[in-house]
Amino acid sequence: MARVELDHVWKRFGSFAAVRDVDLRIADGEFVVLVGPSGCGKTTTLRMIAGLEDITEGEIRIDGAVVNDLPPKDRDVAMVFQSYALYPHLNVFDNMAFSLKMRRFPDGKGASAKLPRTEVERRVRSAAKLLGIEDQLSKKPGQLSGGQRQRVALGRAIVRNPKVFLFDEPLSNLDAKLRVAMRAELAKLHRRLKSTMVYVTHDQAEAMTLGDRVVVMDKGLVQQVDDPQTLYDRPRNQFVAGFIGSPAMNFLEASVVEADGGVFLDFGGFRLRVPADLAAVARQHVGETVVFGIRPEDLHDRNFAKLMQPDATVTARVEVREAMGSDLFLYATVGGLTIHARVNPATKVEVGQAFDVHFDLTKMHLFDRSTGLAII
Fold it and tell me: Second label for 176, Cα 20 to 30 Å away, from 21, 136, 170, 290?
């Protein structure tokens, strides 16, 4: 295991800054996920840790040692790629053993030597047992399923016993069902190995289910670093709030006004009363236009709302109805605005019909319209 530290790291391609001032500390044995849209800088950051990209500014340390100028082979990291990168002419055993056969290791006498054949075989068979591919060792990659090929790629990394595992979107080539299964396998693998792992993905579901902590990036900048539940409950800005969570958070512009002894959000066609425990913060923005955010699962058919709040129910008209068995998604219009609600599947409303939607405003968010930073 090893610590990984990125100290104000930049990566520029000419005048374009792909990664900007990334400052990150990854603890021994931690599973950290870098997530964000395409072009956000997550893969470039991973490649700089691996030594596949040079650093423009800043410092990267692995286990306290600066590795800025070390070639990849000397950083004691193992990288698992999206494309598997297996040798098609070698069987599974030889694919997993390839790096062990090529590398030289310290012999304890100040020199280096290749690993004995018995040690290579021990490591390969141990990794194959861990990954459940013991019976596939004699097969070629072309004879394997996508999930099996991904396990071989993982095994090739495991046999090296590196300080740090690096994963570059390793599940993106798999179908949806297999992706979910492999997510669970990776989580179990981390618990068994207790190794430091840095994982890149554009899929927020992968990030939320795998990461001890999640690093949300956009346009080369780190937007927030937190455990998954904190990211979901307390996003630092509108970008994080919109990126984390599926379906995405609803965003509506509203004016903050005082009326009838309370603080309200005025959307033009309707108003919602800010709960008493949040009113003091909202009152500081009276007269301003803010961005109101609420997740689809916090919008309820009034008939199924567990807790009714005053001045938090409005009538909406259904435009699209998506029944998913355990969930019912409604796209509806209210006051000229569109909302996306995830309601009780027993809700009896069809396209074109009206229903009363109750906003759980204890879960509301407010963002500054110009900076995107969270107010509530």
Answer: 136
